[in-house]
Amino acid sequence: MIRKATLLAVVSAALLAPVGVATPGTAAAKTFTAQASRQGLVLTVSSITPEYAKGAADVIKVSGTLRNDTGSDLSGLLVRLRYQTQPLADRAALETFQTDQTDQTLPSGASPTSRMDIPALAAGASAPWEFTLTPAQLAHPALPRFGVYPIAIEVQQAGWRRLAVQRTFVTYAPQQPKPVRNKLAIALPLIDQPHRVIDQPRHPDDATFVDDKLSASLTGKGRLADLLRIAKTAPPSVTWFMDAALLDDLTAMSKPYTVAGKDDPVKKPADPAAAQWLNDLRAALADSPVVATPYADPDVAALAHHGFDTQVGRAIELGGQKATQLLRPEVSTSINWPASGLLDADALDLLAVGKPGVAQVGKVLLTSANLPQQGQQATPTTQTGQTTQQTAFAPGATTPDATATLYSVAGPVTALVADPTLSRLFEPGGGAGSTLLSRQRFIAETAMIAAEPGQTTPRSIVVAPSRRWDPNPTLVSALLKTADDLPWLSLTRLDSVKPPKRAAARTAQTQRAGLTYTDDNRKEELGRKYLTPVKDIARNAELTSLITTDKPPSAFDAAVLRLTSSAWRNQTRAGRAATQLVRDAVDARMDMITITGADPDQPRTLAGSDGVVPVSVKNSLPVKITVDVEVTSNNPKVLRIVPQPTRRLVIGGNGQSGTLKVAMTAAAGVSGDSAVTVQLRTSDGQPYGKPVKLIIRTTGYTGIALVIVGAALTVMLAAVVTRVLRRRSQRRLERAARSRESEAV
After folding, report:
1. Which member of 258, 274, 568, 730 has the greatest number of CB atoms within 10 A?
2. Cα–Cα distance, 571 to 566 (Å, whole number)
3. What are the distances in angstroms from CA 434 to CA 53, 170, 184, 475?
4. How far is CA 360 from CA 317, 352, 505, 522, in A?
5. DSSP-assigned letter for residue 205
6. What whole-number distance in Å separates Cα of residue 74 and Cα of residue 141?
7. pLDDT digits over 156-201, tens only?
8. How far apart are CA 433 and CA 441, in angstroms?
9. What is the predicted pLDDT for the residue at 208?
10. What is the DSSP secondary structure assignment for residue 722, as one 8-state letter?
């Protein structure tokens, strides 16, 4: 029989808290917390050993503390264990027990000996409690069977007034018969938000950040420090999703960098914690599968809906390149985890096409709301600051296999659907006891899946917490260890999860509705107002590459992809500020290629009705460019541009110039100023920069007329010279005659 607990001598300070931020049962836990807070009485379950029972006679010890924070002494308290003699029927019943906090769902069993009286509890004091039980006692009079048994710890006063209740589970798993050992793949994200904007530092050893939040998260209880702690102890089968933009930022921080300030930028020395974090992460993930997300985690659905056809493929490619360069050589890009785990057919097509011949996606990791089981409804919820959805299990329903096949324009794509309940158990809890309660819920849920009827082959289960989670390393590490130890689970890599081969298994376990993407999901995306200027910047950024002779990838690819990050969904104001910075940088680079002599005060002269006018282009970039110079007349009736065999210039970098001689013809008898428009174009014909207006001044004289006038002027000049010479000669003769006359006299 259940034995009466004895009062222990240990005093502990504990706080009742929910299992997780969005864990099923959170509402219940919050209810208990609220009750305890109002009444100043805190009930905590601190230990359940063993984690699950293997034999009918195994002694299960449940212990915890009761703390009086009312400020006054309390008397007549009773702590007792309530239990149920039948295991829960399915996951729906388990969910109901955890979330429905009415008396109807409380376990009915409460033996007179399964109680502990506390005659008095002084203000601020704690009273430890402990109960023991066995599976055989739980299932009396029948023999216990594999399953999950609900229990509750209840605190009453004066024999009737309930002050607090905490619910949890005891799992009984006898060694025979052995349940089907399902495959469990766990995906954990290492995703942050952009902290840099531009990859064009002022100095070779300088990088500019928009904030310095990363520095604080690397040490102590910072988010990245916690993620590293988890990575160091995680089983090697856990799959990590790595945003290479985070690696990029931390690499830049390992050197001197600059943080933009309200007034002036602030110089920062190299952060040794950044280099240490990177080194530790490389060591921690040396044997674990790593998947690189598209660079900067772009909002793929939004890009698909607003015509960013090439950016997704480039993001997949760049994410893989950076992760390979900064983390380790073996990094996959074939699995995509979209924002909030949601996408539609348009986004799926972009991912599947990717960058043809370079990088494509063959699997997508989705929420169960995006690909629900047939006949189940999706209901909205909020998960760690991100709006997403969860699918509730219907009574009698079995857990579907995690895989399904989707069809894109590039062919079939495998969908990996995360289990919503198990995934949210990995979300951080709020206080003492939450790790224990999450562990017991995890054991119960996975045992319930293993006990579902009709199983003949192992199913695949996928766990994936929210992508920008702020994890509790103690909780996550405990769940990972538990998952690795449970006999009805087999941890496996995410890339090894494949759809069932047998037809019966496919029918029974992978029957899901199609992609479900609601209007509310669409509203969560980056909108047209935000993305329109980003698209303009992306177009100009591409031109900075196309204008060069070698045409390497644009130096602004990473900057543009950061602007499309899904992190800006809830931070559009910050995203717009970043957009302006990138726009300024792209414009400044485009302005390094200029048409010289475009000042209206410096007209170019066309002598006569036809001639050649030079148009010069200066290249201040450090690389060679290939540019086509397109010249058109603003008034072809007055000034016509003569077609020429080529208009292309190849100009060296660092301030070199190239000149195109443009033949023009003016209408007869016309003189004065005319205008032409010069447009630079890339070698594939795309306009580069804004068109430039040049003033052409015509004299109205033809070439022959100029020759005649010149000849006439020459004749006139010769006549004048002859006349002057004759006068000089005549004067000399007159002077000589006068001299002879004087001598004769």
Report:
1. 568
2. 9
3. 21, 16, 22, 8
4. 9, 5, 28, 24
5. T
6. 38
7. 998 778 899 999 999 999 988 888 899 999 999 999 999 998 876 4
8. 12
9. 81
10. H
DSSP state letter for 196: B
Q: What is the predicted pLDDT for the residue at 37?
A: 39
Q: Higher confidence at residue 88 or residue 21?
A: 88
Question: How many whole angstroms separate alpha carbon 533 and alpha carbon 572?
Answer: 13
Contact 29, 17 (CB under 8 A): yes
Which is nearest to 475 in space by CA: 171, 227, 243? 227
Compute the distance between CA of residue 373 and CA of residue 503 in angstroms, rounded to an integer: 17
Q: Hunting for tokens 């110039």 — which residue is that?
A: 657
Angle separating helix axes 345-353 and 311-326, nearest 10 degrees: 50
Q: What angle do CA 490, 494, 496 make, to 5 degrees?
A: 80
150: closest CA among 448, 392, 546, 408?
Answer: 448
510-541 pLDDT per residue, tens: 578 889 999 999 999 999 999 999 999 999 99
Residue 8 has pLDDT above 80, yes or no: no
Answer left, alpha or beta for residue 307, where phi above 0 means left and psi between -120 and 50 means alpha: left
Element (H, E) at 215: helix 213-217
DSSP string, 66-123: EEE-SSS-EEEEEEEEEE-SS---SHHHHHHHHH--SGGGS--B--TTSEEEEEEE-T
Task: Specify the DSSP element, H or E, that contains 61.
Answer: strand 60-68
Comparing CA positions, the residue from 732, 718, 724, 318 lying closest to residue 557 is 318
Identify the residue with better confidence: 742 or 637. Answer: 637
Is CATH 2.60.40.10 the classification given to domain 594-701? yes
Reported residue count of the chain is 745
Give me the residue spans of the domains in the chain: 26-172, 182-427+456-515, 528-589, 594-701, 703-745
Cα 541 to Cα 522: distance, rounded to the nearest angstrom? 28
Tokens at 209, concatenated: 């950040």
Q: What is the 3-state secondary structure (H, E, C) of 301-368?
A: HHHHHCCCCCHHHHHHHHHHHHHHHHCCCCCECCEECCHHHCCCHHHHHHHHHCECCCECCCEEEECC
CA–CA gap between residue 708 and residue 710 (Å, rounded): 5
Query: What pLDDT does 424 receive?
Result: 94
Query: Is residue 51 within 8 Å of residue 443, measured between CB atoms?
Result: yes
Parallel, antiparallel, or unpaired for β 363-366 and 335-336? parallel
Q: What is the pTM assigned to this prediction?
A: 0.85
In 10 A of CB 128, how many CB atoms?
A: 19
What percent of the chain is helix, strand and coil (3-state, nearest 5)? 35, 30, 40
Write the CA distances from 572 to 471, 501, 529, 566, 579, integer angstroms: 25, 45, 10, 10, 10
Measure CA of the first residue to CA of the last residue in the chain; give whole Å.
Answer: 174
Sign of CA dihedral 617, 620, 626, 630: negative
**What Cα–Cα distance (Å) separates residue 513 from each residue in 123, 346, 372?**
56, 17, 6
CB 323 within 8 A of CB 290: yes
Backbone angles phi, psi at 133, to 5 degrees: -155, 165
Structure tokens at 664: 């023009």
Tokens describing residue 402 = 């995690």
Give 660: exposed, middle or buried? Use CB within 10 Å, 0-12, 13-18, 19+: buried
Question: Would the CATH topology of 26-172 be identical to that of 182-427+456-515?
Answer: no
Domain topology for 26-172: Immunoglobulin-like (2.60.40)
Beta pairing partners, 292: 242
CATH of domain 182-427+456-515: 3.20.110.20
For the chain, give the longest Cα–Cα distance: 176
